[in-house]
Amino acid sequence: MEPFKVPPIGLGTWAWGDSIFWKYDPANDGQLQEVFDYAVDQGITFWDTAELYGLGRSEQLLGTFAAGNPNIQIATKFAALPWKTSAADVVEAAKRSTDRLGRPIDLYQIHFPGAWSNEAYWDGLAQCVESGLVRSAGVSNYGSEALRACHATLAARGVPLVSNQVQLSLVYPYALKNGLKETADSLGITTLAYSPLALGILTGKYTATNLPEGPRRAIAEKAVADPAFPALIATMTKVGAAHGGVTPAEVAIAWCAAKGASVIPGARTISQARSDLAAAKLRLSATEVAMLDQASDALAPLLSPEASPFPKQDVFTKMQMFDS
Prior knowledge:
By secondary structure, the chain is α/β, with parallel strands linked by helices.
């Protein structure tokens, strides 16, 4: 079986089932079905989910919506929780995800580094591919050292490491600045960009008097308080105007693509899906990318890798697991 080739754009489904960040309400499942149908009708085949999203609810919804459509390609993720310590845990989790999805998994990813057992997880990934349970292997939130080690371990068994899914946006560009994207490129690994809109911050809709509720509020509040943030939104708007008035959100997604990443923005409404798909057709010039880079560089750090909850180092091997 040929390894999975990550398309330039797909849609993420973190919000499909997540009640903490995204206030998921089962009453809106019909709307999510409409989003799925619309996106597929417009040519989107690639969808990203995880066993942690709504504790399996996202996988269930995606599987139901995709039932009977052989053209859908699905990526999901293994949750590297501290009590999961063996290769068998990875294999069993993949089987449960397959059951919830009701279809094979095209790309199975380690969702985030573990504080230990990382090599056991890579063994489990390889077993999943070797047995035909999943088509291809990927990781998520891995730093350069861990990416190289995982790639080498899998390659020794003839299993390609297809992707590294990382946070990447105009307000979180660390993978571009610390060499992580360069590392992935050198190994032939696709960088898969999640949160390209930074939890909605880069849509331009938030102000000091219009902030989201819940965990996203503090992040949005910090962003809009930065004196350089209005200039970033203004630059995005200016670039959008040069392309017929496309939105800041579309520019933000197109910027990630211009950096060589495949992008998986989320969508809960038809209008959001329409914007995501429009961004896939937007091509920014080198001058426009440089303008956006300059506006991004002027921001104070909104979030830093040091503040991430992901384990930074394997406590036993001392391998650096996370850096951006």
